[in-house]
Design brief:
By secondary structure, the chain is an alpha+beta fold. The chain has two domains: 39 residues; 228 residues, Rossmann fold. A hairpin with a 2-residue loop joins strand 7 and strand 8. The protein is globular, with a radius of gyration of 28 Å. One of its GO terms (cellular component) is preribosome, large subunit precursor.
Length: 324
Amino acid sequence: AGHGGCSVPAEGTGPPAPERVLFPPTFSVSEIKNKQRRHFMFLRWKQQQRKEKLALKKKRRKEREALGDKAPPKAIPKTIENQRVYDETTVDPNDEEVAFDEATDEFAPYFNRQTVPKILITTSDRPRGRTVRFCEQLATVIPNAHVYYRRGLALKRIIPQCIARDFTDLIVINEDRKIPNGLVLSHLPDGPTAHFRMSSVRLRKEIKRKGKEPTEHVPEVILNNFTTRLGHSIGRMFAALFPHDPQFIGRQVATFHNQRDYIFFRFHRYIFKSEKKVGIQELGPRFTLKLRSLQKGTFDSKFGEYEWIHKRREMDTSRRKFHL
């Protein structure tokens, strides 16, 4: 008996070996006691499944080609995203109430072009190297951003100084074990303040096939999939960080893409190769945000009034329910 556990018949005797392994219908790989054998059989079973799937795909493609124009439309695959539970706060673009709220909220002066964004990027107390580099790179993405490294100065004392110097937003990058892990975004002078958990931070040098350093041109901003009232507010907060008039000559785009309540940030440069083809290069940095809370007013962890707090046990009852 060999490794496969079956004897090989002598030449000219017995039936020829089948081309593929046929498992009995009630077969379960987990019943095999020997670990190596179980792993080997599992790989063969996976291989068989893959072959069957490809054969079915090929058969369907041939059927579609044979039917030509009469072929039925392709089925849309089911994903968690397109099976999303409907949220009653989803924004209708023509909703008068939403339009009124937007005309009178804290971001209205920015959207009415009465204020020009001026951002202060700061850190948790005495930041380490990676957080420092991340702040410097973030300042090259957001125009008119200034980096300040905190040394024992409380946020409560920084905010009045920011307001006095006409800063419109404050970004605080928090870290844990030398790794950036949180972002606080506070709109000045009246709020709101959003707390995000930050993950998957990649600095420029860690991005493969990255483009050259970003230029000082004002980038375009893309906000994807912020559909609910809460999502709308968060989208407006991000929009208010960038000046209104992008300089298209720079061909730079900052994207905030919301998918299943995770906000993915990417910074790209694009070039039109022809009328149909566009080439893009990632410039970096990149990171992912998850909203933890939205607070009225500026940063106040003790007495602040919260509009929304993410409570995992109460809110995450379904994998298909999203809040942004």
